[in-house]
TrEMBL record:
Function: Probable flavoprotein which may function in endoplasmic reticulum associated degradation (ERAD). May bind non-native proteins in the endoplasmic reticulum and target them to the ubiquitination machinery for subsequent degradation.
Organism lineage: Eukaryota, Metazoa, Chordata, Craniata, Vertebrata
Database matches in InterPro entries: Auxin_biosynth/cation_transpt (IPR050982), FAD/NAD-bd_sf (IPR036188)
Assembly: Interacts with SEL1L. May interact with OS9 and DNAJC10. Interacts with TXNDC16.
Keyword Ligase set for record: no
Molecular function GO labels: flavin adenine dinucleotide binding; monooxygenase activity
Biased composition (Basic and acidic residues): 636-646
Cofactor(s) of this protein: FAD
Keyword Endoplasmic reticulum: yes
Name the UniProt record assigns to this protein: FAD-dependent oxidoreductase domain-containing protein 2
Record GO cellular component, one term: endoplasmic reticulum lumen
Gene Ontology biological process terms in this record: ERAD pathway
Amino acid sequence: LGLVLYAGSLCMVSGATFLYYDYCVIGAGPAGLQAAYFLHQANRDYIVFERSHAPGSFFALYPRHRKLISINKRYTGKSNSEFNLRHDWNSLLSHDRRLLFRHYSRDFFPNADTMVRYLEDFASLLKLRVQYNTAIIHVTLEKNEQAWNGHYFLLTDQDRKNYKCSSLLVAAGTWVPNVVNFPGSEYVEGYETVSINPEDFTGQTVLILGRGNSAFETAENILGVTNFIHMVSRSRVRLSWATHYVGDLRAINNGLLDTYQLKSLDGLLEGDLEDLAIVKDKKGKLHITLRFYLENRNISAGIDSITLPQDELDNFATRAPYDRVIRCLGWKFDFSIYNRSLKMMPGKGNIKKYPQIKPSYESRGTRGLFVLGTASHSVDFRKSAGGFIHGFRYTTRAVHRLLENRHHDVPWPSTVYPITQLTNSIIKRVNEASGLYQMFSVLADIILLRENATAFEYLEEYPIGILAELEMQTGRKARNGLFVIIMEYGRNFSGADKDVFYYNRAVGEAQHAWQSNFLHPVIYYYKRLPTECEMRLHHPDWPLPRPDAIHHIVEDFLTDWTAPNAHVLPLRRFLENCLCTDLRNFFAESCFLFVFTHQKLPPSCQQGYVRMQGLVGSQELRHQAVQAGLLQDYTHTDFSDDRPPNSHDGSQEQLVRDHGIPVRLQHLVNAKDE
């Protein structure tokens, strides 16, 4: 039957007329609009399909109680816009400063209606090409050797209009409700339709299926009017402050934990939902039982003929009947519109609600099909922020850069600096980069060393999962070694069962930096690019294969890694050990001496003093250098001859004597002076 349907679809599209675009984007939510922005800025041929009449249709419905859990921190004490994005979880990336979410809401946890208005402005002000009221109902492939990826994507909408694309970006999110079927599940109300008026629950007893933020959000709304609320799920509660994963339970919704632990009737239970069964009595009350009690029994015969758990265990936890049962189990990806030829398969285990994709966000089954936004969260599920706006705005930009290199020969953006700027470049990025901070352990800055380590090339926010493919994916060469800069939490600090508030939970000394628990920068050094085999076989608790050297910058309470002794000095010495060079900056006097006393000059002297570049000396600078012990004070030298103290020749001879320059080199000093 599948072959017949596939053949029928090919026959149907063979005689159809197609509108062609290089890039098709499905969905005008935050990820779709972010992708459209980058395509628009690059002047690419693209179109965005949105089934609703406006962008962000998901936020027009959810969350049901309208309060977002993405923070809107309007004040940080700093004016650096890149740093401030670390604490702005709602804004999309753009060049227009008007499109920062802080201009749309003063609330720390904004209303979802504000997000809808923000997305509408983002699409209209930036003049993004979005085609509304267009629901894509079928996607298939057409083989063609002339196409970018060896095939075209053929899309059909609800009006049977057809479109052809070279590359397909799926940003439709996860919006199909997760439903568990068990005996009596027809009595369950869904999160997507249940009343949000607390008065409708007055004096009722409620059971909630699920233990995520939607479940606790629903409980929080009715906590003050119900008799009691029970919540059941197959897993224990996971608190975001313990797991450091923003998708787990947030403090704003956890009022029921208080009433449970303080014994105010509400409670949490663990159990497999598929083992449950619900029986309705004559009064409309809902009784919880187990599936195996109903085997070979007729539910319609009435509750009196059914054995309930309390009949055998008189203190069974859910023996009290419920007035309502509410399902709050989240959402999953809609696979139904994709033809089997695309091989869009669900993941396995706890990521089965997402499509299978590579660390490059490209489908494992079809080249040229990329998944963006929430649906791409399988790459970093329960690890980082890739399923949320403040994470996927950066992964979407990374995908755009991969596509620019693949299809348009535009290499990954990079900047080349002299090696003397290596320490400063790293310190600057770890202190202000928002992509590294939000997508910790997923996106990394890459430093490619040039020959003889005289310069380096800096690439920002590259997906570390495809580090082995760096040369192919970026168009840059990594022939002389590289540094990888990422942000990490401590290895054993995050987890549902962890006490993250224990005494002495943080370290403050550089020598103990490797024991840092809170988010901190980690620098990996490789003499060569890791291979695909090494990437595939590395330890699952490590984001990267074993490096040739590794350095942790000690965690900081203010997330300000600029302390000269605790942060900068250990980093510089690590870099010097890796490169076998001296990365310090020297005054001209010191470089002058090194010319005659060292076979190899430090890079700062090679690239500055020898080329007659660098900071011009002044009396004030010399005085400060003397006070700091960096230079000797020659102004008060008691010269042995009759020449005045400020005589150039006298100063030169005194300089030679003070630094012990051999007599055979003194003529070179005079020659250099001449």
